[in-house]
Design a protein that fits this description.
Blueprint (H helix, E strand, L loop, with lengths): L15 E2 L3 E2 L6 H22 L6 E2 L22 H14 L3 H8 L14 H7 L1 H26 L5 E6 L4 H7 L4 H5 L4 E5 L6 H8 L6 E6 L5 H8 L6 H13 L3 E4 L4 H6 L1 H12 L17 H7 L1 H14 L6
Parallel strand pairs: 3-4, 4-5, 5-6, 6-7
Antiparallel strand pairs: 1-2
């Protein structure tokens, strides 16, 4: 691309995350081509050089090292012209008549072409649910492109889609991916960055789509408030991470890595960190759950109600769980 298109905030400014710069547009065709060309060359080179030592590969687009949007404050991404133009096309495809647009938005439309005169922020507010679905579809479009390139260049090496937690409020209001089934269709490994205070039993069960999909997560540093509160109280056992490792092992998760640890922190907490390895590998696998006891989760609930919806789903999940089976 002659010039990279960067993701923008609602006021039109390029969004830059502190110290990590901007993220490329997921909607601008020239920028997407530049991204896929780069990954094509990179994945081919890495496989040629390290093929027999590769066990997975990632491609990431956000400043947090995930294949999503990210915004720490000041509005949702992306409001750049290519993204809004793509959203208008998405709306015309999803709601091709004026009657449908009127019904969905509550605003009177006489023609789908009227969408072209509505600016981005108003458009995203009028069609809130469609805006969230569009943002998710743009992320997963990129994931499928990267996955297919990697399958071609690095046969046998699974492609990992790394996302933040996909059922918390930030997934909707910031990052973009909330539907584990759709995400599972765009990768070989679904890697979530759940924090230590989250319900990992619920989270891993939620994203387990079966059909050969592998799951991954991470032990996410000392920075997290849950861990800091324990350390400040004199507890240096990293208890939430030990529990997370055990639950991951019981679920049969294949990958669990560390992230956001400095060398000094690893040295200081080496004994506690060493504990999570046997907790992960030696955990006894849970028995398969009774398939007649299940929760039907509507991701639209999460998009509209956010934390309130997931809290309810988690409460139902915990009530139905018996004898360690999920």
């Amino acid at each position: 691309a002659e010039e990279i298109e960067w993701q923008k905030l609602p006021d039109g400014r390029i969004y830059e995350f502190s110290g990590r710069g901007a993220s490329p547009s997921l909607s601008d065709p020239d920028t997407v081509k530049a991204m896929t060309d780069a990954f094509d060359a990179f994945s081919a080179h890495v496989y040629e050089r390290y093929g027999d030592r590769l066990f997975r590969m990632h491609a990431r687009t956000s400043q947090y090292g995930e294949l999503e949007y990210f915004c720490d404050a000041g509005g949702v991404l992306d409001y750049g012209e290519p993204a809004i133009a793509a959203f208008r096309t998405y709306l015309k495809s999803e709601h091709p008549t004026a009657e449908e647009l009127t019904q969905v938005s509550g605003r009177s439309f006489s023609s789908p072409e009227e969408l072209d005169a509505i600016e981005g922020t108003e458009l995203s507010e009028l069609f809130y649910f469609d805006w969230q679905m569009f943002r998710q579809s743009e992320c997963l479009k990129i994931s499928r492109l990267f996955r297919d390139i990697q399958h071609e260049n690095a046969p046998g090496v699974p492609f990992a889609l790394q996302v933040g937690c996909i059922w918390d409020e930030a997934a909707v209001t910031r990052r973009g991916i909330v539907d584990p089934w759709l995400a599972s269709q765009a990768c070989d490994i679904l890697h979530t960055d759940d924090g230590p205070g989250f319900s990992h039993d619920f989270s891993m069960d939620y994203i387990d789509m079966g059909d050969g999909l592998e799951l991954a997560s991470e032990i996410d540093g000392l920075w997290h408030p849950t861990i800091q509160a324990l350390i400040n109280a004199g507890d240096t056992s990293l208890g939430p991470y030990q529990t997370q490792a055990q639950h991951m092992g019981m679920k049969g998760i294949k990958y669990l890595n560390t992230c956001n640890w400095t060398g000094a922190e690893i040295a200081q907490y080496s004994e506690a960190l060493a504990e999570y390895v046997p907790n992960f590998y030696n955990a006894e696998l849970r028995e398969a759950a009774d398939p007649t006891v299940a929760i039907l989760i509507n991701t639209a609930d999460i998009m509209w109600q956010k934390t309130a919806a997931t809290a309810l789903y988690q409460a139902i999940f915990n009530r139905l769980s018996t004898d360690g089976a999920r």
